[in-house]
Prior knowledge:
Layout: H1 2-9, H2 12-22, E1 28-34, H3 35-47, E2 51-54, E3 57-61, E4 71-75, E5 83-89, H4 92-103, H5 107-113, H6 118-127, H7 166-182, H8 184-196
Amino acid sequence: MFRQLSLIFGSKSKAQEIVLLLQDAKEVVRQGFFETELHRVEQFCQKNNLYLVKSKFKVLFADEGIYSNKGIRIPEDDPRPGMYFVYVSKEEQKVWLASYHELMQNHRDLGLVLGYPQCCVDFFCSRFNPQDVDLELSSKNPYTNLSRRGEDLVILSHFPCDPECKESIRMGEKYLQAVYAFDKDRARELLTQLRAT
């Protein structure tokens, strides 16, 4: 089942976010998709009674590679192939709130709607800027280790304020349990690979 989700959503990490939503470990998730990927995502959400809202803009990655923290907003009607942000939840209000906060570039309220810890939202808001877009802190803790997200190996979807942030670790443990309940192999892969880093 996890493999099927990965094919629909385009990566294990994106599939994992949907698993967390379906398992009630998260209330709303935010992911990026190109227009060519949207149809299958929309179909999945419709079949599973999930609300989906697409951003009113597209993003061009400013960095090379499959993972980037830096993007340039462009209008929806720009012909360049940008990525849309998509907000998914079981609750309609949450997807609209996330979409609105993103549109207004209100990082604080967006982070809170996405369920990130207050301390990590504060950390992001005080540090993130166009010259400092990668707020990843080196971590030996598998729950807060973001170093392998480009390889599709990550538990959290936010930047922890500290490698030992208690709230982030608690969240990571909860997320890993939800993944384990859905797909034991994926949970084992995450824990093994993120401990080895």
